[in-house]
Amino acid sequence: MSATDTQTPAAAPQDAAPVHKSWWRALMRDRAAMLALILLTIIVIAAIIAPLIAPHDPNLNSRSVMQPPVWTERGTWEFILGTDGQGRDILSRILYGTRLTLLIGLVAVGIGGVIGSGLGLLASMYPKIDPWVMRLNDMMLSFPAILLGLALVAVAGPGVWPVIVALGIASIPDCARIARSIGIGVMGQEYIEAGRAVGLSDWTIFRRYLLRNSISSIMIFLSLRFGQVILIGAALSFLGLGARPPASELGMMAAQGRDFLLFAPHIATIPSVVIFLIVLCANVAGDALRDVLDPRLKS
Amino acid sequence: MIETIINRLLVSIPVLFGVLFLGFALVQLAPGDPAAVQAGPSATPEIVAKIREEMGLDQPMIVQFGRYIERLAHGDLGRSLISNKAVSSELAAAIVPTLELMFASLIWSIPLGIAMGTLAAVWRGSLIDRAIMAISVAGVSLPIFFICLLLIQFLGVKYPIFPFIGRGGPLWTVDGLRHIALPALSLGLIFIGPVSRMTRSSVLEVLRLDHVRTARAKGLTETQVILRHGLRNALIPVVTLVGLQIGYLLGGAVVTETIFSYPGIGRLAVGAILSADFPLAQGTILVLALGFILVNLIVDILYARLDPRVQKK
């Protein structure tokens, strides 16, 4: 991974505006990536407006328990995706669950992205603190996300917040490493030297040149990270360490369907497929964006 | 070489301390007063105070941390609050199954991932390449619990070929192999994607180098060129990747073990955390973290051995 990632900065900062335009053009040509982006947009919008479009109360127990989805023999249009073991409408729970799952991923990646790229960019700007940041990074890399998650949940008890914090912290070292390598590429550019020569303050250089020219590459890395974070968060919720009932979260919904796997497999399958789609779309779109930015893969 | 190893060991020391402190903090942050628990519900405040003194709980934090490490050095991790067995013996019973599961998952998935990645690189841009890359992307996007549930549903229930609960025995017995089949299949599947993607990009890079052109020029067959000059050099970054992905594998193992009721460290950890069994939770997290550090250490040393350029740095 690092081999391709270190190459990214060389392409990004040089002529920011034209690259930006050709991104979109190249993306448009990549049909899989476009499809992924469209699907992801639909999922995100559906999750945001969940209260408006959910046909039922996600926590309301109806009398039809374990009703199969509409495309099966016994399905009805009242419960399009069927009902779960407690008679709750799966479509409504999926809409709300996607909300929570996306939120966990976004906040965690946000925490990791802001702190991580801050550290990485600072390290690229001030070579003196660079070794210290990298050492700290190495140490943090020794705690994989799942371990941090387990440890935090062990202390704080199961819940959404310990999971978000753990995933956020676990994302810091990777973001810092990427931001640093991107930042070093930017700091080597002539406009930085020019800015220094006309006496701009460090803060101005950071804000106006370093941050602006690195942010798109960092965002692309974060979009790839987003998928992984969602998967770990869903796994923790599946194990009962994340979101707690009665909230709906996709991983937890899959876990609740586990007991009915034999006679009502849709209860576990539908939320799992939604997670798969979200992560797949994020990965495909992120990959495509990276390919567009990486000159070596473009050829 | 020795210098590299010593350097690497020195870097691990603060990390090791961090892990130990994490374990210590876990015990400290546990709700409830350990002295009161020890003394029992009918004890007077004086007795609780006396026990607190005996347990060293009135000492400063740093002294308590020192004592904690001393106890760890003697293999004393406390007792499980639920089973009342020594945490160390519970851990000892769970380590071998987890190692077996990891072994059984990697033994087939790494070679398969490398083969797929190499094929994709050699036929770059072809239908095979696209198919393999599509499978890999789908593979890294699948939630591991979904894979487990699907395998249970099809290979466990619909066509009951493999058992899907517990461990049958050591890996070399028939029953052991049958029981580990589905967990190892699930865990291995999530590993194929990253390995094949990494192998592909690495092989592509190496095939562009001069020595490969020389090998072609001297008339070796394409298979010889790829296997002897391409793949061999391309595997070096793959080794690092396997090391970096151990955390990923660990997460997968925790889920897999729990779903298949497989008696490993991961399931022990989840059970301990869910039942607020702090001493056991602390023990499992310590073992997982130490294992992770150890594997990374081995991978780094292996990497330095495989790639002489690393040593010069």
From TrEMBL, chain A:
CDD domains: TM_PBP2. Its main location: membrane. The keyword Iron does not apply. It is found in: Cell membrane. Residues 98-286 form the ABC transmembrane type-1 domain. GO terms for biological process: transmembrane transport. GO terms for cellular component: plasma membrane. The chain crosses the membrane at residues 32-54, 100-126, 146-170, 218-243, 263-286. Keywords: Cell membrane, Membrane, Transmembrane, Transmembrane helix, Transport. It comes from the Bacteria. The keyword Transmembrane helix applies. It is a multi-pass membrane protein. Belongs to the binding-protein-dependent transport system permease family. This is Peptide/nickel transport system permease protein/dipeptide transport system permease protein. It comes from Paracoccus sulfuroxidans.
Automatic annotation (TrEMBL), chain B:
Pfam families: BPD_transp_1, BPD_transp_1_N. GO terms for cellular component: plasma membrane. The keyword GTP-binding does not apply. One of its GO terms (biological process) is transmembrane transport. Keywords: Cell membrane, Membrane, Transmembrane, Transmembrane helix, Transport. It is found in: Cell membrane. Its main location: membrane. InterPro entries: BPD_transp_1_N (IPR045621), MetI-like (IPR000515), MetI-like_sf (IPR035906). The chain crosses the membrane at residues 101-123, 135-156, 176-195, 234-260, 280-303. Residues 95-303 form the ABC transmembrane type-1 domain. SUPFAM superfamilies: MetI-like. It is a multi-pass membrane protein. Part of the ABC transporter complex GsiABCD involved in glutathione import. Probably responsible for the translocation of the substrate across the membrane. Belongs to the binding-protein-dependent transport system permease family. PANTHER family: DIPEPTIDE TRANSPORT SYSTEM PERMEASE PROTEIN DPPB-RELATED (PTHR43163), GLUTATHIONE TRANSPORT SYSTEM PERMEASE PROTEIN GSIC (PTHR43163:SF5). This is Glutathione transport system permease protein GsiC. It comes from Paracoccus sulfuroxidans.
